[in-house]
Each structure stands twice: as structure tokens, then as C-alpha cells.
């Protein structure tokens, strides 16, 4: 039922190098990988300058790239329509590139806009990260391109600097007002650890997560649904959070002391109250989760995850019937806890389970989906994996 996490990178590298050479008539300069992520806890907190706790997935975007002497950018995706997209980097500007090529183009635009005089490249990408499943295939793609360009053009930028550029690329060029979590997770996560990130100052701490050692597994259940209201609603929620902070006279909702929450809610219009309650309690759940991990009490994360889902469902109101059912069915089948991960309105649910119960829980969710008439969910097993890195010469 469950798919073993990850694919041996070296096998795919050889395949991609052959594809690259067939496409472009010469070998790539190198191969870079950047992973997707699941967020353990801390949803809709990053743009409120709060805390998040993602892990990188073994599933990654891998790109093969070769620097060019001119400003031609050639892009090909194994998940695309077979067309090599050709662009001129000097002409890149927000609004000029539509479709998937906008994501890699955005990163090169962001680099140039920040004053890095980068030129063209030939790029081939291949990805194991499910697209549109709330596992951040977009940030993985951006980060892989950012890291490749950093090396190809000798920019010397740090991982957080590249993450910020990738976020700016998605915000300004692609037009998605995402926070910094996804790009920081893809760039900075380490194998065997969750990334405790303070989204205000980008302070990070690698928190060890030894699921196997605790006899546990983290299931990822991709519901395969993405409800249409996702994009505009996300921007609206973000704006509402900023409005609430302004009404409270705070720089961001992160600055609201939990002890002051009841009084603060009384000062806000009714529609903003549940949003604020979610953000404040969610930041507390991140800190509680980190404490449990530090104490080696991994199973105790379960109730924190489930409480996080209830808050997303009832207060932030970004869950949907499919994610609610996946959480409910997973917990009923014995999961320690479960929650929707990612921005919402579909995407994936994570469930913390005993390793030997993983198949049973996945089967229970699949059966519940069948009964409800929903699509069969795709199941992965998440193991905290490495952030973006160069994976060797072809
Ligand atoms: P998520 O990040 O949750 O997977 P998004 O809607 O933010 O979903 O990003 C998905 C988009 O990223 C795709 O529609 C596509 O444009 C781009 N993308 C991601 N992976 C690939 C890939 N392997 N090849 C081409 N485009 C990709
Ligand atoms: Mg995305």
C-alpha cells in the first residue's frame, strides 16, 4: 500500500543526463536536487511572522543544467508537454511567462532583479514531488533552480538568501503571495530533522526526528483534490491576518501574547477573531511539538497534530470534506494524530502512526474515501530528508 520513500538519486541522475544530452546536444555541468516538504505543524503562521516545523521529503525536483555564454534560457520538464521553452533572460519580467516555465524563469528574474548579472542556461528537470498536492513542488522547483544558478554563476549566496529570492520569485513573478516556509524548508532542512523556523528573522534549529527509532511512521495521504478557491482565498486570509494585527497595534500576529488573546479578540470584528485564535494557538502548538520532540516523546505529537487540524477546520476554515475525512479516518484507524498539511482546500494529510500500522491506516483512509465517492488517495511515507544540494557530476 505505501510506497517506500525516495528513489535512489544516482539511478535517476544517469537517466536525466542522457535526456539532457539528447535534448541539448551536450552534457550538463551538474545536477542539483531540492525536496518537497510536509509541515509537521505551524500552518498559516509564516506570513504572520511566527513559527513552523517542516521536514523535507525524500521526493525531490532534480535539475540538470549547463551554463550558457549568451542570455538564452532553455527549459524542459519531464513532467511538461515535451516542449523546450526558450526565453531570453534579459526580457524576463513579471507577467511575461505563463505556465510551468514561469517558476524557473521567476528565479532567474529574481536573481537579476537583486543585482546578480546571471545569463542563460540549458535546463532539464525531473521531479518525484506530486504536483499541486500541498507538498510544495513549486518551491522545490524554484530552489533547485536557485541552487543550480548559485553554483553555475559562482554567486556565493547562502541557503536562506536563496530561499528568500525563491520566495520573492513566487510572490512577484508567479503572483502567489506565499510565506517563506516552503522555500526555507526546501533549502535548509537536514536529513533526520525537522526545521524549527522563526519566520520573522529566519533563525533555524534542526530538531532531531527519529521516527523509525521510535517505531513510528509518518504517512502522507494526498487527497488528490485542490479546490478552486485556494488561490484568491489564501491572499484574502493573509490580508485579513495583517488587518487584524494592524487593528491590535501589533507588527504581526506573532506578537500577540497568548495570555492577551481573550482581550485581543474582544477588540476585533467577529470575522477576524477565529483567524487570530488559530494563528496564536498554532504558534503555541509548534512550540509544544518541539518540546515533545526534544523530550523524545514522538507519539505525543499526535494530539498536537489533531488539534492543529481542528483549528484549521473550525477557526481558519481552510480544510475541506476530503481532508477532514482523511484525518477522521486515520485517527479512527489508530493514528496518534493527523492533520492537513499545506495551505488548504485539499492537498495532503499527514498521519503519525505505528510503523507496523501504516498499511492498515492507509487502507482505512482509502476505504473511507471509496465509501464517500472520493478519488483514491495517493500514499507516501515521509522520512525527514536532506534539503537542496548538488548531487554529483554526471
Ligand atoms: P504545490 O507547490 O503544492 O505542488 P503549486 O500549485 O504551488 O502546488 O505548484 C505547482 C506548479 O508548479 C505546477 O502547476 C507547475 O507549474 C509547477 N511545477 C511543479 N513541479 C513541476 C515539474 N516537475 N515540471 C514542471 N512544472 C512543475
Ligand atoms: Mg506551491
Mean pLDDT: 94
Number of H- or I-type helical stretches? 11
Structural class: alpha+beta
Percentage of residues in helical conformation: 25-40%
Total strand segments: 13
Q: In percent, how much strand structure appears in the residues?
A: 15-25%
CATH fold-type name of the largest domain: Ribosomal Protein S5, domain 2
Sketch the major β-sheet: 6 strands, mixed
Number of domains: 2
Can you give a write-up of this model?
It is a single chain. With 394 residues, the protein is an alpha+beta fold. It folds into two domains: 8-206 and 385-390, Ribosomal Protein S5, domain 2 (2-Layer Sandwich); 210-382, GHMP kinase, C-terminal domain (Alpha-Beta Plaits, 2-Layer Sandwich), CATH 3.30.70.890. The protein has eleven helices and 13 strands. It has helices at residues 9-24, 102-113, 137-152, 159-174, 181-188, 230-247, 261-266, 273-294, 301-316, 321-332, 358-372; strands at 30-39, 51-52, 54-67, 72-77, 85-88, 121-127, 193-198, 203-208, 216-226, 337-341, 346-354, 378-382, 389-390. The strands form three sheets. A six-stranded mixed sheet has the order 5-4-6-3-1-13, sandwiched between helices. Strands 10-11-9-12 form a four-stranded antiparallel sheet. A hairpin with a 4-residue loop joins β7 and β8 (203-208). α3 packs across α5 (181-188), α4 (159-174) packs antiparallel against α5 (181-188) and α10 (321-332) packs across α11. It is globular, with a radius of gyration of 21 Å. Mean pLDDT is 94; it is low at 1-11. The structure holds adenosine-5'-diphosphate and magnesium ion. Adenosine-5'-diphosphate binds at residues 61, 77, 79-80, 100, 103, 125, 127, 131-138, 141.
